[in-house]
Design a protein that fits this description.
The chain starts with 6 loop residues before the first helix and ends in an 11-residue tail after the last strand. The protein is of the alpha+beta class. Helix 3 runs antiparallel to helix 4. The relative contact order is 0.19. The protein is built from four helices and 14 strands. A three-stranded antiparallel β-sheet has the order 1-3-4, sandwiched between helices. Strands 2-11-10 form a three-stranded antiparallel β-sheet, with no helix packed on it. A hairpin with a 2-residue loop joins strand 3 and strand 4.
Length: 257
C-alpha cells in the first residue's frame, strides 16, 4: 500500500523540494560545455552539502558512489560521472539529482541542451518535457495510475517517439524508492487509485527510436538499443485534495497542462 504523507511530512517534503529546485537553478547558470561529468558531480555535491546543508541522497544508495546521474545523448538513465567524459557543444545531457533534508528526499531531473543542436534534437527534448507535464496534469484524487501512464505514452507516441518501459517513477519520502511504481505507459481506469497525501515521481524517458534499452558493462549506464537519442524530465509531486502539487518546481517553470 502506498504511504500517505501527513501535513507535517508534506511540509518537510516541500523544503527538500525547494532546495533541490535551487540546485538546478544553480546549474542553469553554468556553462556546461567543456566540463567533465565528474566536475558537475563535484560541483553539485559541494552546493548541496556546503550551501544547502543537506545530504545528496543518491551517494551510497545501492552502492552508487556519486551524487547524480549524468546521461548524455543516447544514454537513457543512470549515467556514471567520469573525469574523462567531457560535455561538448551539441550534446544533450540529463542530470538526475536527489537531495535529503530533515529526513525526507526529493528527486528531480532535467535534460540540458548544450550549445547548438539540430532541430530534431531540440524537438525531442521539448516533447520529453511536455510528456512529463502530461503525466503530472493527469494526477488528482480519484484517478488511477494507469491514467497517468496512458497520458505519458499517448503524448510521446503522438509525436513519433517511444517511451522506455524498464524504468519508471516511484513513491518517495523517507526512502528513495517507496510504493507505488509509476509506469510511463498504461490503460486508463486501471492501477492503484490516487489519494490525497501520496507523493511520487513522474519521470518519462522518451526515445527517438526504439524503446528497447541495453545496460553497459559497468552495470549502471542504460543506453538506447539503436544508438538514437533519449531525453528525460522528472519532478516529485504530491496528490492534493483538488489536484497535484509539484514539490520540485523551479523558478523558471510553471505548471503546464
Amino acid at each position: 500500500m502506498t504511504p500517505i504523507k501527513t501535513p507535517d511530512e508534506l511540509a518537510l517534503m516541500r523544503i527538500s523540494g525547494r532546495l533541490l529546485a535551487s540546485v538546478f537553478e544553480m546549474l542553469d547558470r553554468q556553462s556546461l560545455a567543456g566540463m567533465s561529468t565528474l566536475a558537475i558531480n563535484d560541483l553539485v555535491e559541494r552546493f548541496i552539502t556546503d550551501d544547502l546543508a543537506a545530504r545528496p541522497a543518491s551517494k551510497g544508495q545501492y552502492g552508487f558512489k556519486f551524487v547524480l546521474n549524468c546521461s548524455i545523448n543516447q544514454v537513457v538513465c543512470h549515467g556514471v560521472p567520469d573525469g574523462a567524459e567531457i560535455i561538448r557543444d551539441g550534446d544533450i545531457i540529463n542530470l538526475d539529482i536527489t537531495l535529503e533534508k530533515n529526513g525526507f528526499i526529493a528527486d528531480s531531473s532535467k535534460t540540458y541542451i548544450v550549445g547548438e543542436v539540430p532541430p530534431a534534437t531540440r524537438r525531442l527534448v521539448k516533447v520529453a518535457q511536455e510528456t512529463m507535464w502530461k503525466g503530472i496534469a493527469a494526477v488528482r484524487p480519484g484517478v488511477r495510475l494507469g491514467d497517468v501512464g496512458a497520458a505519458i505514452e499517448r503524448h510521446a507516441k503522438k509525436n513519433g517517439y517511444s517511451v522506455v518501459r524498464e524504468f519508471c517513477g516511484h513513491g518517495i519520502g523517507r526512502e528513495m524508492h517507496e510504493a507505488p511504481e509509476v509506469l510511463n505507459f498504461g490503460r486508463p481506469g486501471t492501477g492503484e487509485l490516487l489519494r490525497e497525501g501520496m507523493v511520487f515521481t513522474v519521470e518519462p524517458m522518451v526515445n527517438q527510436g526504439t524503446r528497447r534499452t541495453l545496460t553497459r558493462d559497468d552495470g549502471w549506464t542504460v543506453v538506447t538499443a539503436d544508438g538514437k537519442l533519449s531525453a528525460q524530465f522528472e519532478h516529485t509531486v504530491a496528490v492534493t485534495a483538488t489536484g497535484v502539487e509539484v514539490l520540485t518546481l523551479r523558478g523558471d517553470e510553471r505548471v503546464m497542462k
